[in-house]
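Look over this one:
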Amino acid sequence: MKAFVLEAYGPGRPLRAAELRVPDLHDDEVLVEVHAAGLNPLDVKIRSGAFKLILPYRLPLVLGHDVAGVVVKTGPRVQRFKPGDEVYARADDFRIGSLAEFIPVKEVSLALKPRGLSMEEAASVPLAGLTAWQALVQKAKLQRGQKVFIQAGSGGVGTFAIQLARHLGATVATTASAASAALVRSLGADVVIDYKTQHVEDLLRDQDVVLHSQDAKELDKSLRVLKRGGTLISLSGPPDPAFGRETKASWPVRLAVRLLSAGVRRRAQRLGVAYEFLFMKANGQQLGELSRLIDAGAIRPVIDRVFPFESTNEALAYVETGRAKGKVVVRVK
């Protein structure tokens, strides 16, 4: 099969086009013929080596977490899917590799593709959509009438999080450039802050939830816009001790994680708010919930650009610029 392979870690390092054998299928997995692969900042960070202590992949590695395609084979323990099913998924950690013609995915991580979406649109959903779901529904338990501040509303996660929060009945504030203001308002943002000319801490207060995805400077500002008892959920870190336990990390990594997040956890405690780190996980059941919302018209994917398979390196470079509005997708088939 054709694939794009990472041979060594390094910022901006290009992937090599290669011919590989189709991966072996485990008993609880489904082999998916890849039609489209969504790209994420996580792919760029793994390529650079930023996560090699947390996710110690063996190189060479086929990148790509998001996949939409067609089932071609199932393991003997698989019950819910059959050849010919159109499916999508966020591939499991240590089984990633959607920048290839075929990928094995655990049955529990897979869901039927939303009926009204193209393969490219479906491939844009899993990682970003599940991140929004796990942050706002699973961790924050966002309720109708609450206020949520979502950073970077025009980004991949932001575009899903705004729509999901609006569906849940929350009042949504977000940051965006002036050029992206109309987009985030169309998705349901009530308050749009121009991050280039306005200051979040001057305009927001008493937020119930903050979804943080930016740097440490913005993290400190965001802690201060929460009401007492509110929760900040960070996608960009630092990781907290719960993350070390959940990932069953080695004790040196757990110690490092505890030390890295000690400062922000102390600041949060002084302000009377909670700090939590989220590293999203593959989950087919939650992806099925997102499918229902998409089919009902409550959420729609936002795609910036679709690249052909042979332009995978250009697609990754575009993701790395941080300028994409919504998601970037590679059309594999």
Notes: The radius of gyration is 19 Å. DSSP finds eleven helices and 16 strands in the chain.
